[in-house]
Specification:
By secondary structure, the protein is of the alpha/beta class. The longest helix has 21 residues, at about 120-140. It has helices at about 1-10, 40-50, 65-75, 75-80, 90-110, 120-140, 155-160, 180-185, 190-195, 205-220, 255-260, 265-275, 295-305, 330-350, 365-375, 390-400, 415-420, 430-440, 445-460, 465-469, and strands spanning about 10-20, 20-25, 30-35, 55-60, 80-85, 145-150, 170, 200-205, 225-230, 230-235, 240-245, 280-285, 315-320, 355-360, 380, 405-410, 425. The radius of gyration is 23 Å and the shape is globular. Helix 5 crosses helix 6 (about 120-140), helix 6 (about 120-140) packs across helix 7 (about 155-160) and helix 11 (about 255-260) crosses helix 16 (about 390-400). The strands form three sheets. Strands 5-4-1-6-7-8-11-10-9 form a nine-stranded mixed beta sheet. A six-stranded parallel beta sheet has the order 14-13-12-15-16-17, with helices on both faces.
Length: about 475
């Protein structure tokens, strides 16, 4: 094992993801660049800096000489090499908005009624994945560890193998992997499954996802040989061997924990308390997406107010919805539904200056976000299905006083790690979620501390850096 680790440390890492870890902003006709944020970037950046690494992805804008010069000029600030993949408009539409987010995204979240299986989108998905594989091959020196990220780039492994780069390749799926009866609905199920098995190491968020994948391999590729080796399962298929493991992603606990103690965050938390005096704050924070279960959550909150009238004027739901894919008609309809539900519930229960739901459609700064977490006595994290859901972990990391209650969907990947401290619910069960809100409201501080300490200890121990290792 020691020799394996020593050999791995000598490899130059190449990370491939749909988007580069940067933020591009055009001001007065000129592009400005900032390093990206988030747990994945935070954890991978030191690995790339220390090993002369490369991050490959689409920059979010047309690739031209000006953009290339900008990336080159900022290489010193970023600390590692950024290599762009240039995608045509039809590829962006068909590969990203089409196959990735209209076929794989809803399929992998068990939401078949949202799936659009378009053969042209499938062709463009393969075409874009070939472009990524070609960029990786061009950057490779023969002594690399190639790590491909998420469902947008599953086919990259297949094309890398065709190009002769079959060694030291890994893939991590950030979203769930569906059960067999859902996965088989995909017209190109064999191509996708065989592409997975072109990687030497395949990582999933939870044991549930890993089991679903293994069952699909057994059913659809009966010639594959599957064996168990300690923590991993080994799949031998044709002339290749893949190791399958579970690696739940996490956050930089220390960063969140320390920032939550800062004056700026305390001021932001004080602002929330001042805005909603003498009330317990319930927070829900989600990207605008049908997998997040926002309408189901609003119905549960409405049910709680109807069945527990003693809680009226004593709690407020702060629902933050972060804009996403606002140009897509389905997402526009979803926003309209949420807007109307919030208006109806507020119209039904508002009294004496108290408004039950404070609805924000937008984004908060990091300090405001942490302040919102810290000020909230209860967090409602109730996706219909999620690979992990880092909001749940961020909420716990921000509660340095060990108080606060997390209500968590049993269908979020985080439930497997935080289930001993959270109140687990079925987000489809409106009454169950409403009862959980009431239980959280009346929970005594001692029980809150016991639960929160369990969750914070888990997140501190299994942080994002351990995930990378």
């Amino acid at each position: 094992m020691k020799n394996q680790l020593e050999n791995l440390e000598k490899l130059r890492p190449i990370i491939a993801s749909n988007r580069l870890p940067i933020k591009l902003e055009k001001i007065s006709g000129k592009w400005l660049i900032q390093p990206g944020t988030g747990g994945l970037v935070t954890a991978l950046a030191p690995v790339l800096r220390n090993n002369n690494g490369i991050w490959i992805g689409w920059p979010g804008a047309p690739v031209n000489d000006d953009l290339q010069r900008l990336l080159l000029d900022n290489a010193a600030n970023i600390g590692y090499t950024l290599k762009t993949v240039d995608l045509a408009e039809d590829e962006i539409s068909g590969f990203y908005r089409g196959f990735s987010n209209e076929a794989l995204w809803p399929l992998f979240h068990d939401l078949l009624d949202h799936c659009n299986f378009d053969i042209r989108h499938w062709e463009l998905y393969q075409q874009a994945n070939y472009r990524f594989a070609k960029s990786i091959a061009e950057a490779s020196t023969g002594n690399n560890f190639i790590w491909v990220q998420d469902y947008h780039l599953i086919m990259v492994g297949y094309f890398l193998r065709e190009m002769g780069f079959s060694d030291s390749t890994a893939f991590f799926l950030h979203v769930p992997f569906p059960p067999q009866d859902i996965f088989i609905k995909l017209p190109w199920r064999l191509e996708i499954l065989e592409a997975f098995l072109c990687y030497r190491l395949i990582g999933f968020q939870t044991e549930r996802d890993r089991r679903n994948f293994i069952r699909c391999v057994r059913a659809l590729l009966p010639e594959a040989q599957i064996s168990q080796r300690r923590k991993y399962q080994i799949i031998k298929y044709e002339d290749r061997v893949s190791r399958i493991g579970t690696f739940p992603i996490s956050i930089d606990f220390t960063h969140f924990n320390e920032d939550a103690k800062s004056r700026e965050v305390n001021d932001a938390a004080w602002y929330f308390h001042e805005r909603f005096p003498n009330q317990k704050i319930i927070v829900g924070i989600d990207r605008l997406d049908y997998t997040k279960g926002i309408p189901h959550r609003l119905r549960a909150f409405e049910n709680c107010l109807a069945r527990y009238p003693e809680l009226r004027q004593k709690m407020t739901l702060v629902e933050l919805v972060v804009p996403s894919r606002v140009g897509v008609p389905e997402y526009q309809m979803m926003k309209k539904q949420i807007d109307e539900m919030v208006g109806r519930i507020n119209g039904r229960f508002t009294e004496g200056g108290w408004v039950p739901i404070h609805y924000i459609f937008g984004t908060l700064s990091r300090e405001e976000l942490l302040g919102c977490y810290k000020a909230s006595e209860i967090a409602l994290v109730t996706p219909l299905k999620d690979g992990m859901n880092l909001v749940a972990k961020e909420y716990c990391a921000a509660h340095v006083d060990d108080l606060g209650v997390l209500i968590l969907s049993e269908f979020a990947g985080a439930a497997s790690r935080l289930g001993t401290g959270a109140i687990l619910v079925n987000p489809y069960n409106v009454v169950e979620v409403a009862d959980a809100i009431f239980s959280a409201y009346v929970m005594d501080p001692d029980e809150q501390r016991i639960r929160m300490r369990k969750m914070r200890s888990e997140i501190r121990r299994n942080n994002v850096f351990r995930w990378v290792e």
